[in-house]
Here is the input.
Amino acid sequence: MVHIGNDWDDILQTEFSSDYYRSLREFLKHEYSTQRVYPPMHDIFNALRYTSRADARVVLLGQDPYHGAGQAHGLCFSVRDGVPFPPSLKNIFKELSAELGIEPPTSGELTGWAKQGVLLLNTTLTVREGRPQSHLGQGWERLTDAIIDRMNDKDTPVVFLLWGANARSKKQRVTNARHLVLECAHPSPLSAHNGFFGCRHFLKANEFLVQTGQEPINWARTKE
Here is the structure.
């Protein structure tokens, strides 16, 4: 049984005991025993472990984990301290620097954001090495849709950052008018110049949080 260690355990209890999750679990047992799969098993639910529902004020959606060795550790777009920045993360830091006038962070580990209430959620939580989207359609989407729905149910206003087509497809799940949805192109080098650069989402998210009586995110504090 999954143990996260905060309010997500009770919130997702029905999901974790469902037939689809049992099937997903069997699939993952086989994958981890026969393939190289990322992130490591104990890191799969790090997004939920670092950021409880009660504390979450921003939801940043990714697609699936990095598929290179040593990169993924359960937080979308994040890599462990000391790991070279993947191209999308480089572009995120470039936009962050342009918006806030700060030097790009020296660590690609985004645990500092997570600890401040940024839920760094991929819509698929595992992937085979070198095969992006290889675990799509196995059940993860049902679980992460349920997480998005529970965030949509929050009484306190939440910012949803939807970067790229996969994340933007989840916009229909954010039906609560008290929340703010910010969407643009993905930060990948293939699309960043089509609207990610110049999106000003870091500033807009903080403006909204302040307007709704919440603390802004210190985006410069990437690593906890």
Q: What stands out?
A: The CA atoms of residues 20 and 26 lie 10 Å apart. Residues 19-34 form the longest helix (16 residues).
